[in-house]
Design brief:
- By secondary structure, the protein is an alpha+beta fold.
- The chain has a single domain (2-155), classed as 3-Layer(aba) Sandwich (Aminopeptidase), CATH 3.40.630.30.
- It has helices spanning 12-19, 22-25, 35-42, 94-109, 124-133, and strands at 2-6, 50-58, 61-72, 78-84, 114-117, 136-142, 148-155.
- The chain has a seven-stranded mixed sheet with strand order 1-2-3-4-5-7-6, with helices on one face.
- The longest helix has 16 residues, at 94-109.
Length: 161
């Protein structure tokens, strides 16, 4: 069973560990390679991003396994980003299940017009996962750092008649 809990400063050391892992760094590399940088990026100074830790629960035991975040876009959409930090949980369908749960959590608290994410066009595994959930490609564009983003969206409101 899985759940989300809000990220706290107690999670910064774990984030540093995850961010240094090759399977995370390949797709998520903001230069957060010290505890101070992680604390600054993911701490109170980080702006309007709502951050969560994905936790596997088993009776009285909880194991943090991933990171999820969402942020508001002026057009009424919500953007999401996420990764599974623990290698043992990759390629087992957990990401797909967790993203579905995350979308439900967002929908309970907000009523976005759509949910948007932007994987690298080279991240075929993530793109396949997002497609299974219902995300559709709508644009490929250059980001501020010059990388390409494969823009995908999940419409949350039924189309107008």
């Amino acid at each position: 069973m899985f759940k989300f809990r809000l990220m706290t400063s107690d999670d910064f050391l774990l984030m540093l560990e995850w961010l240094s892992k090759d399977h995370v760094k390949q797709w998520w590399n903001d230069g957060d390679d010290t505890l101070e940088k992680v604390a600054d990026h993911y701490g109170a100074k980080s702006g309007d991003v709502v951050r969560f830790i994905l936790v596997e629960t088993d009776k009285d035991d909880e194991k943090p396994i991933g990171y999820f975040q969402y942020y508001f876009i002026p057009d009424g959409s919500i953007g999401i980003d996420q990764f599974i930090g623990e290698e043992d949980y990759i390629n087992k369908g957990i990401g797909e299940k967790a993203i579905r749960m995350f979308i439900e959590l967002i929908m309970q608290h907000h009523k976005p017009t759509r949910i948007i994410l932007d994987p690298s066009p080279d991240n075929k595994r993530a793109i396949r996962c997002y497609g299974k959930i219902g995300f559709k490609h709508y644009e490929t564009k250059k980001t501020e750092d010059g990388h390409l983003a494969y823009m995908m969206r999940l419409d949350c409101r039924p189309p107008a008649n």
